[in-house]
Amino acid sequence: MSKGQTRSPEAELGLLDATMIGMGAMIGAGIFVLTGLAAEIAGPAAIVVFALNGVVTAFTGLSYAELAASIPKSGGGYAFVREIFDDFASFIMGWMLWFAYMIAGALYALGFAPNFLELLHVYGVVPPPEQVGAVALPVLDAALPLSFLLAFLAVLGLVALNAVSTAASGSVETIFTVIKVSILVVFVAFGLASPMFSGAEFQPLFPEGSGAAAVLPAMGLTFIAFEGYDLITTVTEEVQNPRENIPKAIFISLAVTVVVYLAVVTVAVGTLGAGGLAEAGEAGIATAATSFMPTGLPVIQNGGALIVFGAVFSTLTALNAVVIASSRVAFSMGREGQLLPSVGQLHHRYGTPFVAILASAVVMLASVALPTQSAGNMSSLFFLLSFIIVNVAVIRLRRERPNMNRPYEMPFYPAPPIIGIALNLLLTGVLVEFLLRTDPLALALSAAWILLGAAAYFALKRAKTPPESGPATDDTEITPEAED
Amino acid sequence: MTSTLDIIIAGGGRVGFQTAEILADRGHDVTIIERDERTVSDIADQWLATVIRGDATNPEIIDQAGIERADVIAALTGESGLNLAVCLAAGELNPDIRTVARIDRKGGEAYTEFVDAVVFPERAGSRVAANEILGSDVQTLADVTGNLDIMLIRVAEGAPAAGKALSDVRFPEGTVVVSDADGERIARADTTLTPGSSYVVAVEPDVVDEVLNLMRG
After folding, report:
1. Which phi and psi (to 5°) does residue B192 adopt?
2. Strand partners for B74
3. Which residues numbered 124-163 in B keep a CB inside 8 Å of some CB on A?
4. Who contacts B66 (Cβ-Cβ below 8 Å, separation ≥6)?
5. N or C: lower Cβ tally within 10 Å for chain A?
6. Cα-trace Rg, chain A
7. Does residue B130 have a pLDDT over 60?
8. What pLDDT was estimated at residue B83?
9. Residue A172 burial (CB count, 10 A)
């Protein structure tokens, strides 16, 4: 190779790959796991819920695009905030983001379990979920044994995999995403054609009693669905022409994802009805598919199996992605000296951020004991909070560093980040209020996590010996030429 | 100790940019201050450092580069006087900061009264040039390597690889540990990475960060 001017690793991901990474993260488990939960709260208005969430997220997307283009650091939200805020604020941001990913991991694992059971059921290995569910469904402790065990095993397996070998590359992600989207397209096509859909009933759009107001808590609960485009900003280094392609990839993936969600949710509500969807919970899409997909096909026997397989596949790949994402946040925090230094170290034998992965695994495994809905609530809450900080970061950066080079500047500044902050705050408020009424456990755990973080921050700060002034220069150096 | 340094480089030209590239490969946070519009956009294309557009002698611009949190400032523009001024101003704004100034003639060592270190790139460059001209079969390490870094790395206490035998450490692809402790012999599988000892390591730039993580923590 010639003496290249470009920095390795070579930029090899195109716009398509970058877009696929974002889509892969968003069209993952969320659509399979959360649709039923949204229908439970909002009824047929679940469609509205996802559309509005897409709009809300888009404002933060603009902020991410501007930050990613002007702060060349792979690392996503934490890296950006670290650049701008003081130690404590950036610590809390990292701490929340870390938790959000870990809880999302638990959510996906919990979504994996019922879908996996549904898959086994389609092939007749286990009795239909209603019968398994009849014993298990409503109460937490009754549901524990089987699905808890499955979720626990899923997390354990993927954590072990990631702990001993380095992660899959972007191109694998592209293939995964294509598979997921294709399966959903099949779902939508069959759904639209099915007789069940022709008699679709979307009225009343809003559930009786709560009315249109029900949309807001459902939005809060499912907000996490559109979290994921920020993963694009974690691979920016490998993207060609990042200052153009990163913002584009963010917007395209967001737009396509919203369209896919709307189509899928419309079909699901149209065929199964909001009530049926709500009843099926985490396996909503899979159940809908089993109801209208053709049966008696060769090999796969049951067309529904394809979709159910998609759900299992999606929850597993999404789980894998958040295992990586969460450990990466912890790892960067360790590197920056914001967590114990060992968290920021690679394992000498495996070459992976072993301690960071283990630390994330502990919380994830513990969270698998939560009800799915609590996991969704908490993850959404923490993403909402960290998105608020990201929007604040954009405004602060513009004010404090007006001369910073910004290859991408968002249009209509400062409107988008302000609107983003306002909408995210609104949803946070609604979600907190909703949790106070329905899920105080999730709220208490969330508060406990933040308090734990603050305590850890100050304990760590105290434990640290007074920092040696100046960098340690003499230990690492290029051999002869640099000296003079 | 934080392993990542916050480094400001004033001047994003040839020297400044190449330096930023090496530092970013090693996982440090680099901010470049650059006046020239076109250079700014070239640097932005490479996407390796945050860029502040403006004059590095302007305290407001230095401030925007995050001087109060930075560990090092290196003034690497082509003008010695300007570099010196930048370092002095930076020292005023953040007394703890390490300052490095590029100078353009011999004898610039006298400046170390005002700055922590001086750099004279032409001297280093002329060594390389002399070696190339002579085309000798025997060259110093750094010259044969295009992109490779030949580094002398001291193993830190408590680093992931500290005290481990080479056969027990998985270095990323693109790494060769050349010498054993303190360069006495060629490294073998059973060579132990003793904390406090230095080893010659050949590394490809994109994995320097990982290697340093393993050996330095």
Report:
1. -95, 140
2. B9, B100
3. 124, 127-128, 140-143, 146-147, 149-154, 156, 158-161
4. A83, B6, B8, B31
5. N
6. 23
7. yes
8. 92
9. 12
Spell out the alpha helix ranges (H) of A194-233: 195-198, 215-222
Task: Decide if A9 touches B, using CB distance below 8 A.
Answer: yes
A470/B96 CB distance under 8 A: yes
Each residue of A24-36: pLDDT tens digit?
Answer: 778 877 788 888 8
Smallest CA–CA separation between B170 and chain A, in Å? 5
Q: Are strands A301-302 and A295-297 parallel, antiparallel or unpaired?
A: antiparallel
> How far does chain A reach from its first CA to its final CA, in angstroms?
29
What is chain A's length? 484
Tokens 């808890």 appear where? A148
Residue A399: phi and psi, rounded to 5, are -75, -45
DSSP string, B101-165: EE-SSTTGGGGGGTSSEEE-HHHHHHHHHHHHHHT-S---HHHH-SS-EEEEEEPPTT-TTTT-B
Q: Which DSSP string do the residues of A294-307 spell out, in sequence order?
A: -EEETTTEEHHHHH
Q: Is A346 on the interface with B (CB under 8 A)?
A: yes
Least confident of A333-337, A355-359, B123-127, B166-170: B123-127
The verdict on a CB contact (< 8 Å) between A402 and B147 is no
Share of chain A above pLDDT 90, in %: 13
> Would you say residue B107 has pLDDT above 70?
no
B44 touches chain A (CB under 8 A): yes
Mutate which of A354, A396, A397, A403 to test chain B, going by most B C-beta atoms within 10 A?
A403
Give contacts of A470 with chain B, Cβ < 8 Å. 71, 96, 98, 116
pTM check: above 0.90: no
Kindly list the strands in the beta sheet with B149-154, ordered across the sheet, starting from the edge strand earlier in the chain: A476-478, B149-154, B198-203, B175-177
Q: State both tokens at A228.
A: 């994921």
CB within 8 Å of chain A, chain B residues 50-109? 50-54, 61, 64, 66, 71-72, 96, 98
Poorest-confidence range of A129-133, A281-285, A419-423, B44-48? A129-133
**Which sign does the torsion angle of CA A149, A179, A323, A311 carry?**
negative
pLDDT tens track for A254-276 = 999 999 989 988 888 888 888 88
Q: What are the tens digits of pLDDT across the range A79-112? A: 888 888 888 888 998 999 899 889 988 888 888 8
How close, in Å, is residue B151 to chain A by CA atoms? 5
Please give the Cα distance from A365 to A372 (Å, whole number). Answer: 13
pLDDT band at B76 (very low <50, low <70, confident <90, very high): very high
A332, A339, A406, A475: best to mutate for the B interface, most B CBs within 10 A: A475
User: Do the chains contact at B158 and A341, CB–CB below 8 Å?
Assistant: yes
Q: Are B46 and A7 in contact (CB under 8 A)?
A: yes
A406, two tokens: 């910004």
CA B75 – CA A210 distance, rounded (Å): 64
Q: Nearest-CA neighbor of B89 among B113, B114, B120, B121?
A: B114
Per-residue model confidence as pLDDT tens digits over A51-72: 999 999 999 999 988 988 888 7
* Interchain CB contact of B123 with A (< 8 Å): yes
Chain A to chain B, count of Cβ pairs less than 8 Å apart? 159
Enumerate the residues of chain B whose CB falls inside 8 A of the CB of residue A1. 146-147
